[in-house]
């Protein structure tokens, strides 16, 4: 039976889980992503000098500050925000998740979020290092990315609804998968493709950066789901038992 906790306690658990996840993701990004960003920036500076242009001028925030403080601060704040959203989603959707396990409910929501707002956009619009891309198309790329992010969540929702129209397990899996893939295929077909990576940019460096970026998100959402589930379990075992009848 699902726990019956006040929204304040759920939100506190979500924010704490987000803090933990953000710190872990920041550490992962520092170890795997920052060396690739440094390499990409070095290539950009070499290209700038080769074309006889002046340097980029004085930085508003130094690169070292960005790496050592800015990165961890950004992932931590992002994790805390996601933790708040996860707790809110849990409070609103818990009764509709059709599971008696709070751990499965928490991990299911985190997995759905990872799939809808990370994996689906990543496959269509994989991230590029900061030194790659045309600044003139930032607005168009941002709109396309946000549209795909929303459609990714719609795909998850469509898959769940389709699965619940069936009674047999294999039919639920088939219906859910088909509905999910139909929405994703439509989204991928309608939204424009972008490829602004210069042919001269090292393919292995680009691939390593993209994997590091995806790995950071996987660490973040995995840690968020596990930490939130763990905190829910702690609340369930430390408080006087109050559950839904």
UniProtKB/TrEMBL annotation:
Highest taxon of the lineage: Bacteria
Record keywords, A-Z: Membrane, Transmembrane, Transmembrane helix
Transmembrane domains' residue ranges: 69-93, 105-123, 143-161, 173-191, 211-232
InterPro entries listed in its UniProt record: CbtA_put
Keyword hit for Membrane: yes
Protein name: Putative cobalt transporter CbtA
